[in-house]
Amino acid sequence: MHESTAEPAVPAIALEPEPGAARDRESVRSDGGLDRALRRELALLDRAGLRRTLRPIERRPGGGARVVEDGRVLVDFASNDYLGLAADPRIAAAAANALREAAIGAGAARLISGNHPHHEALERELARFKGAPAALLFGSGYLANVGTIPALVGRRDVIYADALNHASLIDACRLSRAEVRVVPHADTDALARLLRADRATGFRRRLIVVDGVFSMDGDLAPLDRIVALAREHGAWTYVDDAHATGVLGATGGGSVEHWGAGVEGAVDVVMGTLGKALGVAGAFVTGSRTLIDYLVTRARAFVFTTGTPPAMAAAAVEALRIVQDEPARRRRVRAVAAQLRTRLAALGHPVAGAPDGHIIPVLIGPADRAMAAGAALRARGYLVGAVRPPTVPLGTSRLRITASAAHSDADIEGLVAAIADILPPRTAR
Ligand SMILES: Cc1ncc(COP(=O)(O)O)c(C=O)c1O
Questions:
Q1: pLDDT digits (tens, 9 = 90+) for 276-331
Q2: Closest approach atom of ligand 1 to CA 145
Q3: Structural domain boundaries of the chain?
Q4: How many Å lie between the centroid of ligand 1 and the Cα of residue 9?
Q5: Could you confirm whether 166 is annotated as catalytic?
Q6: Among 107-111, 192-196, 345-349, the least confident range
Q7: Ligand 1 surroundings by CB, under 6 angstroms
Q8: How far, in Å, is the centroid of ligand 1 from the Cα of 168?
Q9: I want to staple 227 with a disulfide (CB 3.0 to 4.6 A). Which of 161, 246, 264, 266 is the partner?
Q10: Cα of 402 to ligand 1 centre, how many Å?
Q11: What class does CATH assign to 58-87+327-424?
């Protein structure tokens, strides 16, 4: 706003400093107490090859799997844009159209004054898409997890968490203050033993928490066995379907649809994201009407946060339409994944997970080698995630290649040639 408006200037209010506050602030500024401590830590992280920095990367409308970094076009094998929707002009148009009649900001938390019809329309569509009675939007997958899990379990309860669960699930479990049993990865015998051993311990509630598709390994949680064990032992189930939503199942419904009869209707809580295969941003939880009503009151990451911009919700409705109307995208991402996996195996880099799994980890080991491999691929025109601790366990740093429906056969061949160039088979573990 221009300064010469009729509004009188608001006088500055001088706050009384608390005793010692000025001195403390001064000491932080003058002797560098905070910065010095953090610089020391950053130097240690640097030395261990674990420091992270940001690089500007542009994704342009209609650009498919192409991104631009420092003016150079790179083929993106790093993002979670599995269906090639992040740059889809139809989704951008849905947001732009919504902005003609909806304000950019929700204005407040949805419970206060920020509940827009676009939010409610998206939740109706999401529930239908997931075959669930109801859905609730969250600002992100991270928030959905840290909002929902602590709302469901607490101090007198126990969580059974897969050892390779996503960081947001780990944080959610910690935040809940429930007892956490870490289950060896995908080991349902171990899960059964833990559930049995806890029978006599008197926990109020028991919750099994898993990724539907593991984000860094690409394999699937054995949901058929997990829901059977949950039923047998009176436990609830929570599936983080961030990487399955839109990709797995005949209509893209995710892990539950993929596993089908026996699992459908048997998972208590499913979290899905809108920022990966759906190409937008945000996340949601689906489940019973009662669960959603409860979360509206009790999930702090829903209650105490500003609503999603309504135009984003409108964009997500369009993304959902495309996901369901264009099953060829799902067939394509599977074909790309299968081709990548076959070609990498032929190079001597066996990759874990399903033969057409869309997350393709190439294990390297030491963090610095993985980072160097990522940088070498970038120099050759390919953006590939180089993943190191704490995202993955120590000594298991890797390239995380993601398949997308937007990749062409030439993209695949180009990446495989670049990998052959920089990563001789002997360096693969
Ligand atoms: C398994 C899993 N859960 C949750 C999240 C968080 O989702 P979001 O990026 O929407 O916060 C991610 C994404 O990084 C993920 O991989």
A1: 999 999 999 999 999 999 999 999 999 999 999 999 999 999 999 999 999 999 99
A2: 4
A3: 58-87+327-424, 89-325
A4: 44
A5: no
A6: 345-349
A7: 140-142, 145, 166, 168, 211, 215, 240, 242-243, 273, 275, 283
A8: 7
A9: 266
A10: 15
A11: alpha beta
pLDDT in tens, 336-350: 999 999 999 999 987
Is 404 noted as a catalytic residue in this protein?
no
Residue 26 above 90 pLDDT? Answer: no
Q: Does the annotation mark 130 as catalytic? A: no
In whole angstroms, how large is the CA radius of gyration of the chain? 24
Average pLDDT over residues 226-233: 98
pLDDT at 219 over 70: yes
In this predicted structure, the answer to whether residue 15 has a pLDDT above a threshold of 60 is no
CATH architecture of 89-325: 3-Layer(aba) Sandwich (3.40)
